[in-house]
Design brief:
ten-stranded mixed beta sheet; 30 strands; alpha/beta; globular; disordered N terminus; 660 residues; single chain
Length: 660
């Protein structure tokens, strides 16, 4: 039961609500004297609403909210974090090119800025919809917001940043806008110039999201608002909502190619037009044997045709056995003269049209007009999408897990994301999903790779390790059973109760099922993934603020590297700083008792052992790596480090050498 208020009513707040009911566009958000958000009235706009004349004042076309500037600052703020490899939870660690990253996606996106700048072809995300019951990220925007949240108890005892954004929160829309804005800013940097992003959303924030995307990606790069007709709604209301949206934006619309066709069916079109300045008349000789779909003895002489006139200038235009009986020269407004020349007198195997669609035939129809047959490779898909119901997607996922109920709420259809991949992604491209949830995107990438339409597509999934037990404590009635199913399943496979464990298990099961269904060997399809986990920096505080420590304090510090960090932790920290992809192969070898790590055949060679000898340094330099990294404490003094530099100058002058 609700508590009694035990205080007088807030008349100002009551009046704001009354004005908001009459003039909702005049309600905004502001900060009170205690630094807490509250609803307020835009009095300038209210005056205009009550006036028949234009009231003087500054105007600007913009979309803003409380915390927008702080969200921009937060997106650009550097962090001291790293991604730690977790081989024991990975699948095919040594050979896979897929990544599964656990952690706050804002911080992960910051860490990926160097390694994947301009390298991601497609992004798909399914962020929280802000229905009033969703858990969203609480980012560290500014102290006033922090204090406000701590007062309300929105952090848990461990300082976790997930909280339920209820509509009673004074920053209900602002919090959500700030959360998604900073992440989209960072994700745009990762897209290739011809990259594309798909964002699932419902009615609650579609307008805000579109305004944010138009600002981040540019209004001119808006491609479409897709509507998924999911044909299911259990909610009561004036209307039953049977759909969700997928907002689609390009990084640069000028580089977006026409969407690829999914079925590659054959279709035909005319290969001639009415003679005009754009399509002048020309002559072409068609060889005997060309398909002619007319009864035997059909013959055209002189000039024939209605709008698109054809003139027989040499030979006879006569049909026999549905073929042209003899060579004939025709004069008309041919639109495919070059392609006809290659088809009839050149190499047909490489024949394509201006959009890259394969041309399979030229033939005459019964009226004597030349037609072209193509294998459809591009098409303009409808914005209304039919990928089955939400219930069907849930059933598919529960079947994969071998359960009667789905362990995840509202999973997206595999076919939907698979279609996006097949239409817009090419061989070897990267697909990113930084709200990966049940890992549908990984499943869809596997399905796309076995379709034989694309190959070698890689994915990067990012998901915060949301504690399902904590979520269950405050779950709405319709979410309780789903969480219980997930927890029960994780108990059955002896895994921790986090959403990440469900996602990783889904990827494992999907990979196995697809290989079995398609009779594929392990090397035929990369169904592995490297697990990386967001963590604090590998380095102790002294590494960043050595000037803050005096000589007596420094003597008690054994190392500037944290004691629980492995060589692999240090290696991947170096990859992030140097901007190398995290999915490339690497090996290690023992040289004179020292472990030497070789990443991607010399892109980076590292040795983090203590007291490295000159012989080991020389052995590394002789490999001519592009980059070399050592532990700073490996060298007892400055002359030793200078000597290393001299060795590389002599044996590998182009190698960039650093220490940590």
């Amino acid at each position: 039961m609700d508590k009694m208020r035990m205080e007088s009513v807030n008349l100002t707040a009551q009046n704001v609500e009354k004005i908001g009911a009459m003039f909702p566009n005049c309600v905004t958000e502001t900060i009170d004297e205690n630094g807490k958000p509250k609803k307020a009235i835009n009095f300038e706009l209210l005056k205009q609403m009550l006036s028949g004349d234009v009231i003087a004042g500054d105007e600007a076309y913009e979309f803003t909210w409380v915390g927008k500037k702080a969200a921009i600052v937060e997106a650009n703020k550097p962090i001291r974090k790293t991604l730690r490899p977790c081989k024991e939870e990975s699948v095919n660690w040594d050979t896979t090119e897929n990544l599964y990253i656990e952690g706050d996606n804002l911080e992960v996106l910051k860490l990926l800025q160097e390694s994947y700048l301009g390298k991601v072809k497609m992004i798909y995300i399914d962020p929280p919809y802000n229905t009033g019951n969703d858990f969203i990220y609480r980012d560290d925007f500014k102290s006033s917001a922090d204090d406000y949240e701590k007062d309300l108890g929105l952090y848990d005892e461990n300082g976790n940043r997930m909280f339920k954004n209820t509509d009673s929160n004074g920053r209900f829309h602002s919090d959500w806008c700030s959360m998604i804005y900073s992440r989209l800013m960072l994700s745009r940097n990762l897209l290739t110039e011809d990259g594309i992003i798909f964002i699932s959303i419902n009615d609650k924030e579609i307008n805000s999201l579109k305004d944010i995307c138009s600002e981040v990606f540019g209004e001119s790069n808006f491609l479409a608002t897709l509507v998924w007709d999911k044909n299911h709604s259990a909610q009561a209301g004036i209307f039953k909502v049977y759909h969700e949206y997928i907002l689609t934006y390009a990084k640069n619309i000028n580089y977006i190619k026409p969407p690829k066709s999914l079925n590659n069916d054959l279709f035909e079109a005319g290969a001639m037009k009415k003679v005009s300045g754009r399509h002048p008349a020309s002559e072409f000789t068609f060889p005997a044997g060309t398909r002619f779909d007319a009864p035997d003895g059909t013959e055209f002489v002189g000039e024939y045709g209605d709008t698109e006139k054809v003139v027989v200038t040499k030979g006879r235009m006569i049909a026999k056995d549905n073929k042209l009986l003899e060579d004939v020269t025709l004069k008309a407004g041919f639109t495919q003269a070059n392609q006809m020349k290659q088809y009839f007198y050149g190499d047909r195997s490489t024949l394509v049209d201006s959009q890259g669609q394969k041309i399979t035939e030229f033939y005459f129809n019964s009226t004597g007009k030349i037609k072209i047959v193509k294998e459809r490779s591009v098409e303009s898909p409808q914005t209304t999408c039919h990928y089955g119901t939400q219930g069907a997607a849930s059933t598919e996922l529960s079947t994969l897990f071998g359960l009667d109920e789905c362990p995840f709420s509202s999973p997206k259809p595999v076919s939907m994301i698979k279609d996006f991949v097949l239409r817009f992604v090419s061989d070897g491209d990267i697909v990113l999903d930084f709200f990966s949830g049940s890992a549908t995107t990984a499943h869809a990438v596997y399905e796309a790779n076995v379709s034989r339409k694309v190959k070698g597509i890689k994915y990067i999934l990012v998901q915060i390790a949301e504690d399902l037990d904590e979520s269950l404590k405050s779950a709405q009635k319709d979410s309780v059973r789903t969480l219980e199913v997930g927890i029960e399943y994780l108990d059955s496979i002896k895994k921790p109760h986090t959403i990440c464990e469900i996602g990783k298990q889904r990827i494992r099961l999907a990979g196995t099922k697809i290989k079995e269904k398609n009779h594929l060997a392990s090397q035929d399809l990369d169904t592995g993934f490297r697990v990386l986990k967001l963590d604090d920096s590998n380095m102790n505080d002294v590494y960043y603020g050595v000037n803050e420590y005096d000589q007596d304090m420094l003597s008690i510090l054994e190392s500037n590297i944290k004691s629980d960090r492995t060589d692999l932790d240090l290696l991947f920290g170096c990859l992030l700083e140097w901007g190398l992809p995290l999915s490339l192969p690497y090996s290690s070898e023992n040289i004179d008792g020292f472990t030497v790590h070789n990443y991607n055949d010399g892109d980076l060679i590292a040795c983090f052992d203590e007291n490295i000898t000159d012989d080991v340094v020389k052995a590394i330099a002789k490999k001519q790596p592009l980059r070399a990294v050592f532990r700073d404490s490996s060298f007892p003094n400055s002359p030793s480090k200078i000597n290393v530099g001299e060795i590389f100058k002599m044996l590998a002058p182009d190698t960039r050498v650093k220490v940590i």
